[in-house]
């Protein structure tokens, strides 16, 4: 969709071959430029290499979408420390580092958009549903969204978007968990259209 509107799309993936394949599909379907770069959001050095590579390729980032995330099983008392580390690095530190890598240039140019892909499970009002590291990192991502929105100047909008249930690999994997089976039995499977939570509009 973005590519169709004339934007150069940067597809940042930790799996270059898969990224190239998806870029090819996007170009074939919509035309336009799709630039593929390697990025592991959980690694601050990788974020920095990605930013440097984009500068060297002459790509200016006006819109940053923080989409990558992991949803790992486990509760406060039983998740292992590696799981906590991965979730915090991917779901919270990654967006934080990406914001620091790309938003200063947006501020200098006076224009930018940041979309943090969050979740209803990160909502205190919604009861912080789901696995513990997922819900608390998404709640913290909402916090990062609000803090960033308070601190930027110029025509820069910072939002968190909560897509609702979408049948992706993350969801399919989660369905193997007993908790999810119960939830789906109670509430049914509800693929629903994306919603943007107005509470975190800048
Ligand atoms: N699906 C839903 O119902 C739903 C609901 C609410 C919110 N969301 C949010 O929507 C976003 C997309 O989720 P999804 O459902 O599409 O999940 P998904 O199918 O599991 O996709 C997650 C993506 O994140 C990437 N990723 C994970 N760790 C990464 C890392 N360290 N560096 C770079 N990329 C990394 C994965 O890359 P690889 O392919 O390399 O593993 C994968 O492409 C997430 O923020 C999720 O929390 C989804």
Kindly describe this structure.
The chain is an alpha/beta fold. It has a domain at 68-200: Rossmann fold, CATH 3.40.50.720. The chain is built from six helices and six strands; from the N terminus they run βαβαβαβαβααβ. Helix 3 links the parallel strand 3 and strand 4 (111-117). The radius of gyration is 17 Å and the shape is globular. Residues 189-202 have low confidence and may be disordered. NADP nicotinamide-adenine-dinucleotide phosphate is lined by residues 14-15, 39-42, 67-70, 90, 117, 119, 162-163, 165-166, 168-171.
List the helices and strands and how they pair.
Elements: E1 9-13, H1 16-30, E2 34-38, H2 44-56, E3 63-66, H3 81-109, E4 111-117, H4 132-151, E5 155-162, H5 169-174, H6 178-187, E6 195-196
Parallel strand pairs: 1-2, 3-4, 4-5
Antiparallel strand pairs: 5-6
The structure holds NADP nicotinamide-adenine-dinucleotide phosphate.
């Amino acid at each position: 969709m973005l590519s169709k509107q004339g934007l150069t799309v940067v597809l940042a993936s930790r799996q270059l071959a898969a990224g190239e394949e998806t870029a090819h599909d996007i170009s074939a379907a919509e035309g336009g430029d799709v630039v593929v770069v390697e990025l592991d959001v959980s690694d601050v050095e990788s974020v920095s290499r990605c930013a440097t590579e984009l500068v060297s390729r002459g790509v200016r980032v006006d819109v940053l979408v923080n989409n990558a995330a992991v949803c790992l099983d486990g509760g406060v008392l039983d998740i292992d420390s590696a799981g906590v580390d991965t979730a915090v690095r991917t779901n919270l530190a990654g967006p934080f580092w990406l914001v620091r890598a790309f938003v200063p240039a947006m501020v200098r140019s006076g224009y930018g958009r940041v979309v943090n892909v969050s979740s209803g499970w990160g909502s205190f009002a919604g009861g912080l549903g789901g696995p513990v590291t997922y819900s608390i990192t998404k709640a913290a991502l909402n916090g990062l969204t609000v803090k960033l929105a308070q601190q930027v100047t110029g025509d820069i909008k910072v939002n968190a978007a909560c897509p609702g249930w979408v049948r992706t690999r993350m969801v399919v994997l989660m369905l193997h968990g007993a908790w999810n089976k119960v939830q789906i039995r109670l509430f049914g499977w509800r693929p629903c259209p994306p919603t943007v939570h107005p509470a975190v509009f800048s």
